[in-house]
Amino acid sequence: MGMSRNVEECCVTSHPTLKETTLSHRMATENSHAAHTLKPYPYQVAGHAAQGALKLTDDGCVLKPVQRPPKGMREVVFYDTVFNQSEKREEILQLRRLLPFYHGIVEIDTSKYLKLENITNKFDLPCVMDIKMGRVTWEDNADETFKERRQKKWPLREVTGFSILGFMVYNHQKCCHEHYDREWCQKLSTVQDAEKCFHQYFGGVQFDMTSDILGQLLTNLMDIKQWFTTQRLFRFIASSILIVYETNCSRKLGKHQKSHEQSETVENMHQRSPTNLLVDTKIIDTAHVFPSTDIDDNYLFGLENLISIFEKCRQEYAVN
C-alpha cells in the first residue's frame, strides 16, 4: 500500500495540473461513450479474466477493466502521467510510442475501464502472443509463500527472465484461430520448449514471410531495450510485451483505415510507418509500475534473452 501511494504522489507531484487535466478528460470520455455497444474482445490470450474480459467498443478501441485498489489506481495514474499533454520529458515521450495509445477512463454501468488503442485493429488476421517480463514478478512486500507459488507455476521464468502467458495462431486450413492458454504454456519447462513454442506461434504465416516478420519484431524489441537501457524513471514488475503479426499472406502491409475519430492522433503519436505494419509490439499490463532511479535489470534480463531467442529463430528460418 505504501509503495502504491508513492507512485501516485511521484506522478502527481511531477505534474501539478494532472488532476484537473485527467478529470476533464475522464468526464468527456464517459459522456461520449456511455451509449457504446460493447463486444467481447476476440484476441485476448491472457489475463484479467477474474476482473472481467476485455471489451471491444464500436469505435474500434479496447476497454480494460480498472482493477481493484491499489493496482487499478496505480495503472490509471501511470497512463494519465505518460499521456499527459503537458509532459515534455524525452523519456516519457519515447515511452508513449511503446504503449497502446490511451484515451482516458470510461465508466459503464458503474464499472470503470481504461480505454486503449486496439493493437490488432490494423491487421486482417492477427496472431497474438502475451509475454510477461522479468524473473521477479512480485512486489517487494510479497510473502515467501506467494513467491514460491509463482516460481513453481513458471519454472522457466527463473532461467529466461520471461514467461509466455498465452498465444493465438491463425490456422489457414481450418480458417480459424487456435488458442494456446495459460495452462498449456505453463508446461514449457526448458529453453528448447520455449523455442519450439515460438516456432509454433510463427507457424501461422507463409514460411518465406517469417524472416521478415522476425526482422521487424527484433527492431521493435530493440527499441524497447534502448528505452529501458537509458530510462531511470520506472521499475516494471509483472508487465507484459504483446506481440501481434499479420498472417494474411495476400498482403505485405497492414491496414491504413481509420478505426476511430482520433486515429490520426494515434498515427502521429506512435509515428507509424509501412515497415512497422507486419508486426506491432507494445508494453501492456502496467499495474505494478513503480518509481525508480536505477536501471530495471529485472526487465532487461528477460528482454535480452527474448531478443537472443528470436535472433536464433530468424537465423534458422534464413538458413532453411
From TrEMBL:
Say yes or no: keyword Transferase present.
Answer: yes
List, alphabetically, the GO terms of the cellular component aspect.
cytoplasm; nucleus
Family, per entry = Belongs to the inositol phosphokinase (IPK) family.
Q: Which GO terms describe its biological process?
A: inositol phosphate biosynthetic process
Spell out the reaction equation it catalyses. Answer: 1D-myo-inositol 1,4,5-trisphosphate + 2 ATP = 1D-myo-inositol 1,3,4,5,6-pentakisphosphate + 2 ADP + 2 H(+); 1D-myo-inositol 1,3,4,6-tetrakisphosphate + ATP = 1D-myo-inositol 1,3,4,5,6-pentakisphosphate + ADP + H(+)
**EC top class, as a word:** transferase
Give the originating organism.
Answer: Pocillopora damicornis (Cauliflower coral)
Q: What is this protein called?
A: Kinase
The protein's GO terms of the molecular function aspect are:
ATP binding; inositol-1,3,4,6-tetrakisphosphate 5-kinase activity; inositol-1,4,5-trisphosphate 3-kinase activity
Domain of life per record: Eukaryota
